[in-house]
Every structure is written in C-alpha cells, then in structure tokens.
From TrEMBL:
<protein>
    <submittedName>
        <fullName>Uncharacterized protein</fullName>
    </submittedName>
</protein>
<feature type="coiled-coil region">
    <location>
        <begin position="69"/>
        <end position="103"/>
    </location>
</feature>
<keyword id="KW-0175">Coiled coil</keyword>
Length: 120
C-alpha cells in the first residue's frame, strides 16, 4: 500500500469518525429532547387528570347543592300551603267565636230582660 493510498484511507477514516461523532451527538441531543418532551407530556397528563378530578368534584358539589335547593323550594311551598290552610281555619274559628259571643251576649240580655220583667 502506498502512502497516498494510506493517506486516503486515513482521511476516509477521519471523515467516518467525524460523521460518527456528529451522529452520536445528534442522537444524544435527540434522546435528551425526547426525554424532556416525554417528561413534559407526563406533567401535562398529570395536570389534566388533576383538573378533571377537580371538575368532577365541583360538578358533584353543584349537583348536590341544586338537589338541596329543590328540596328547600318544595318544603317552603308545602309549608306555605299548610300556613294558608291554618290561616283559613283561624279565620273560620274567629267567625265562629264572634257568632258564639253574639249568641252568649244575646242569651244574657234575654235572661236579664226576663228577670227585669218578672221584677216589675
């Protein structure tokens, strides 16, 4: 092998080594970038999962509050109806009481008049 052939082989070997080093560095950078992106994706997935869990909790709390609100409205409507019925009973008893008081007064007046006539 001549010096020139040897020189060409060494030059080719150097070129191959430089390409190998360049490709190895590119592979390392790509691997680091991939690892970084995977870690970022994992963090985003965990954040999304956490947010979804919070949304589910908030929806459940809101749903429960709405159910309790409907229950309160129903209770109030029922109690107002009961109050109205009781107020009507009170009104009727008041009318009855006035009539009975009038009858009692009239009965006493009649008795007093009767006794007054007897005494005359």
């Amino acid at each position: 092998m001549t010096n020139e052939a040897m020189f060409l082989l060494v030059t080719q070997a150097e070129t191959y080594l430089e390409q190998f080093v360049s490709q190895t560095q590119l592979l390392a950078r790509t691997s680091e970038l991939l690892t970084s992106q995977l870690a970022a994706q994992q963090r985003h997935f965990e954040q999304a999962s956490s947010c979804n869990a919070e949304v589910t909790r908030i929806k459940a709390a809101s749903s429960e509050a709405l159910e309790q609100l409907v229950t309160c409205e129903n209770n109030i409507a029922q109690w107002q109806s009961e109050i109205e019925a009781l107020q009507e009973k009170i009104r009727q008893e008041g009318v009855k009481m006035e009539k009975l008081a009038a009858v009692a007064v009239e009965a006493q007046r009649a008795k007093v008049d009767e006794l007054a006539h007897e005494g005359i």
